[in-house]
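Example (one chain per record):
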Amino acid sequence: MSQYPNADVQTIARGIGLDERIGSRFLDAGLGWGGSCLPKDLKALVRFSKTVNYSPELVEAVITSNENQKVRAVQLAKEALGSLRGKRIAILGLAFKPETDDMREAVSIPVIRGLQAEGAKVIAYDPAAMRNAHAVFEDRITYAQDQADCVTQADCCIIVTEWDEFRAITPETFLRLMRQPIVIDGRRIYDPDKFIDAGIHFSAIGLGPRTS
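Predicted structure:
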């Protein structure tokens, strides 16, 4: 990507997925995985490998890459806004994946903590995980009533979980409700050209710089 700064990793993934030995089902760009199973299983695999004197370099690199992805949203917000201190950042999606209320190893946790470390004010919404999120964050964040409430007067919105109802949000909605129309698509659910042409300051995981 550094040699081709305007590249889109989704275009590259489509090409890779044409190889039937690989397929395209698990090549989506995003902020990383979460949940109770995959992180635990990979760490167990690393530990076991070392007991038999095998160095699982590839698996360790995958784990490291996944951890790095979680902070990418904070980096993109800083690139768009400069200082995050006092900025209102909307988080759409708290559960580790859609169609669940599970917050175990959810990407939203390090993203929100990273934003708070930069002095941002976080308001969040998830269709199912609000109660479990409150057990994690207590009153350290604001809980929105719905997605419209979440983005209203926000300086930046980060998509963290790819719920279908978030896919339906139009650029016009963000433009109408947000204080600054800055959208960071952490799950690649939006068409970049459509959002940029509408006047959104849009960035996404694996997407090179775009201009309207």
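Caption: DSSP finds ten helices and six strands in the chain.
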